[in-house]
Here is the input.
Amino acid sequence: MKTTGVKWRVVLVRPRNPLNIGAAARAMANFGFDDLVVVAPFDPVWREARSAVGAGHILKSARVTDHLSEAVGDCSFVVGTTTGSRRNLDRDPVPLTELTAAPPKLPSRARAAVLFGSEKTGLLNDHLSYCHLLVRIPTTAGCPSMNLGQSVAVWCYEVARAAGFSHASGSGRVHSSLPANIQSLDHILDRAARVLDHSGYFKPKGKQAQILKLRRLLLDLGLSNHDVRVLGGVLAQLEWKIKAG
Here is the structure.
């Protein structure tokens, strides 16, 4: 969607049905969104989806990545969609209507992404660890899970209707006052993990879970590009000192 403000990206994580991918792309076109990234799709499924009728330029320009970090690396704000019924979540999902009624205050040049999980598993805990916020589309308790294409359509409609979520493509220039994007935060996380490894902080069996918690902590801090540069310098010095010692 191209208006003044935030540039939203739709990210489909490991989709399994070409019809759903085509429906998602069609819904994006209906409501003015044009930035689609597909993460680790099943190859035959993606080839079939590319030829889906009605998907048009959205599918032709869509990017494919192997990992979620590549899909959201340049984004400063990431939303994950979930029913909340398949995972032991560490935070409550916010209803979509509540989110659009009081949208987060993001700089006009910021990039943001919304994640939709596989039809079979939804978003996994690793995927959710990249999210600043979790959102659910209000549904009945008896049938909480929605079809992937329908979910994208509801999201796109509600965000477009709310008019508080406007976005622009941006100049690509990195401003120090902007929120740090996921790629920058992952660089900090990698460096922090190395420092903690050297210090003996991690327990062998719980390392991955602790890293996911650290990623959540970095997201919650709301670091700017300037903050990341400062913190990166501190961690680099600590890493050098530990190795030298």
Notes: The first strand starts at residue 7 and ends at 13. The chain has two domains: 7-162, 182-244. The chain is about 45% helix and 15% strand. Residues 225-244 form the longest helix (20 residues).
